[in-house]
Amino acid sequence: MFPSPSAMNFSMPKRTGFVAPAPIEINSSSYFMACTIGGTLACGLTHWLVTPLDLVKTRLQVNKSLYTGIFNGWGTVFKSGGIKALYTGGIPTIIGYSLQGAAKYGFYDYFKYKYSEIVGEENAAKYKTLLYLSSSASAEVIADVLLCPLEALKVKAQTSTTPFAPSFLAGVNKVVASEGVSGFYKGLTPLWLRQVPYTMVKFATFETTVNMIYKNVMTKPKHEYNKTEQLGVTFAAGYIAGIFCAIVSHPADVLVSKLNNASKAEGQSTGQLATKILKDLGIRGVWVGLGPRIVMIGTLTALQWFIYDTYKVQAGLPASGSVEPVKQKN
Predict the structure, then answer these.
(1) What are the tens digits of pLDDT across the range 4-62?
(2) Are the C-beta atoms of residues 191 and 222 closer than 8 Å to each other?
(3) pTM score above 0.85
(4) How far is Cα of residue 12 from the mean position of the Cα atoms in its chain?
(5) Nearest one of 281, 59, 266 to 154, comparing CA atoms
(6) Pick from 253, 81, 276: which is nearest to 154 by CA?
(7) Are 87 and 52 in contact (CB under 8 A)?
(8) Which homologous superfamily does the CATH classification assign to the domain defined by 25-314?
(9) What is the rounded distance in angstroms from the CA atom of residue 222 to the CA atom of residue 319?
């Protein structure tokens, strides 16, 4: 006979082998990897999105009479080649800044943790601005080594009003054939001069601004605000940081554009070429294109921090900003 219902086992089978993912521990290897991934997404995507603005800004730095302004530049470029022309240099941009972002954000939190260990918790808290500055500078030195070859290729493509090369790989081969591998790194020192101060201001100003907002405007503890509110603070602090970044790094940005566009005379070193360019530009010349760059860098920096923190929040981590005690690894 059939067994009675009470004798039958109607219970759902137990799930075996399933383990809920553990939360990411602050300052663990998983945490630094999350920062690296977030930085890749933040820098690569944002720099690619503003390529049309970067294109006009870079060309005006090399030849200030080329366009009468941003909109005139966009219109002129669009008429000559459509949307594709506006994104000239887009491929080296997204590759180069993805690599740079990975190193910049990943190593920043790594160095911040390591330097805090070296000086001790009390000194790290007491001299936190110095901690932000030293950590961001160390991270950017590494990041720029990765960025430099792609930045050189991007600038060559953008400063050429006729197509520099038919493809990304063709551009790489053209530089190697004419200048050798060293041609990709002749702008490394000016790039450091541009990016290291930029990043130091970017991280220190951002962290300080976040602290000030939570202290003076949003006075509850940070963890009591929801994700949307925390990300709003991130965006506002990022834009403020971006304005300062643009001003501090602009002269070196002009030099990088000029240097990668110029041809060295026989026997002339990169330093000699840079000195000549700066002499020709004069004090006023190194500030050409500052307005467009403030708009670009302000927007760029705000979006970068927003994307970076959005990724961190989705990964179960708090938004950036040292407003609460940092957890140390056991």
Answers:
(1) 444 444 444 454 454 445 678 888 999 999 999 999 999 999 999 989 988 998 888 78
(2) no
(3) no
(4) 50
(5) 59
(6) 253
(7) yes
(8) Mitochondrial carrier domain (1.50.40.10)
(9) 9
List the single range of 25-39, 168-182, 228-242, 281-295 with lowest mean pLDDT. Answer: 281-295
Cβ(270)–Cβ(165) below 8 Å? no
Select from 112, 105, 97 the least CA-distant residue to 38: 105
CA–CA gap between residue 97 and residue 44 (Å, rounded): 5
| Tokens 């008429």 found at | 79
Q: How many CB atoms lie within 10 A of CB 195?
A: 26
Separation CA 140–CA 146 (nearest Å):
10
Q: Which residues contact 67 (CB under 8 A, 6 or more apart)?
A: 56, 59, 60, 73, 76
Per the structure block, which two tokens stand in for 59?
């060309």
Q: Specify the length of the chain in residues.
A: 330
Residue 291: both structure tokens together: 């307005």
Which tokens sit at 299?
Answer: 């927007």
Please tell me the distance from the alpha carbon of residue 239 to that of residue 245, in angstroms, as a whole number: 10
Judge whether 120 and 128 are in contact, CB under 8 Å: no
For the residues 238-247, what does the mean pLDDT come to?
88
- What residues contact 258, with CB distance under 8 A and at least 6 apart? 61, 62, 277, 281
Count of C-beta atoms within a 10 Å radius of residue 294: 17
Distance CA 19, CA 123 (A): 40
Separation CA 77–CA 75 (nearest Å)? 6
**CA distances in angstroms from 122 to 138, 224, 302, 322, 327, listed in the order given:** 22, 26, 31, 14, 14
